[in-house]
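step=encode ok
step=design start
structure_in=
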């Protein structure tokens, strides 16, 4: 019973027939007080629980704030590191631009025609072939070896319409290439250049003077003459002259090809050769139809060609 209700009822109780004793009245007042205090205590408990939960949330927020502060500090540090790395990258890029080598000058234009003379080079195929392939090659070059089979296939496919010319370009980092070139020319002095050419490419890892002499014997050459020619200044000069000629035209790497004077670089697939050969074959036939003798087609084709890149 609320205290206000008790106060209103107390006079009535005192006027009642059974007037409560002082002890009963004290008990009654105590019960009433307990009834009034109980809801307050319950509410205090609820408030205490809410306060505890609020404190927990505040603690979590404080922890989150600390973590955010740490992340912010880490972000600032990372941004500083990124800026430093970018600065270093800028310096390196500028240094790279300064150190970057200039493009190699004089690379031949594959669409242009070059005046590639046959000279005293080794030749397979008729002089009146419609298309002439001149190659600069190196007996120690693996790419030159790789293209040998392709050239054989082309010669078989085009027959008398294709002429193949071999010139030397022994690269400086192939120590056996120049001696091999001279040995091949020494065999050529006895009419066996192409046979020696094939033996050298078939045994590319064994290009030694001992083997050159062995192969000369197998080819039934005059071995004594062959041995003398291995030291021939004339043959050495021929190899060196052909190499300079190739370099002048821009054929500095191996293998390098000129198809009726048009440049083709590297160990290309057969289809790339065929495309160029077919183009030049059609032009050669047009020249013949216009009155150019077949034997003069190559000379007419390269007559006005470039002499350097």
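sequence_out=
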């Amino acid at each position: 019973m609320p205290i206000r209700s008790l106060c209103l009822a107390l006079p009535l109780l005192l006027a009642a027939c059974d007037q409560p004793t002082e002890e009963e009245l004290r008990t009654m007042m105590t019960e009433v007080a307990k009834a009034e205090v109980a809801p307050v205590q319950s509410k205090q408990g609820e408030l205490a629980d809410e306060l505890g939960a609020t404190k927990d949330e505040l603690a979590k927020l404080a922890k989150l704030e600390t973590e955010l502060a740490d992340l912010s500090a880490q972000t600032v540090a990372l941004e500083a590191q990124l800026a430093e790395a970018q600065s270093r990258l800028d310096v390196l890029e500028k240094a790279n631009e300064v150190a970057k080598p200039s493009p190699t000058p004089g690379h031949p234009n594959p669409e242009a025609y070059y005046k590639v003379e046959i000279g005293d080079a080794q030749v397979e195929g008729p002089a009146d072939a419609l298309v002439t392939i001149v190659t600069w090659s190196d007996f120690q070059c693996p790419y030159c070896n790789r293209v040998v089979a392709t050239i054989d296939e082309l010669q078989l496919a085009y027959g008398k319409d294709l002429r193949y010319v071999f010139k030397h370009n022994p690269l400086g980092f192939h120590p056996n290439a120049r001696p091999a070139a001279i040995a091949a020319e020494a065999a050529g002095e006895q009419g066996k250049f192409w046979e020696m050419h094939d033996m050298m490419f078939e045994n590319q890892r064994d290009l030694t003077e001992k083997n050159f002499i062995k192969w000369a014997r197998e080819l039934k050459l005059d071995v004594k003459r062959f041995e003398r020619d291995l030291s021939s200044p004339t043959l050495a000069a021929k190899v060196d002259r052909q190499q300079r000629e190739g370099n002048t035209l821009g054929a500095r790497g191996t293998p390098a090809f000129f198809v009726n004077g048009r440049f083709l670089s590297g160990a290309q697939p057969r289809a790339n050769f065929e495309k160029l050969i077919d183009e030049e074959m059609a032009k050669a036939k047009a020249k013949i139809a216009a009155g150019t003798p077949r034997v003069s087609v190559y000379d007419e084709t390269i007559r006005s060609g470039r002499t350097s890149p």
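step=design ok
step=annotate ok -> The first strand starts at residue 122 and ends at 124.
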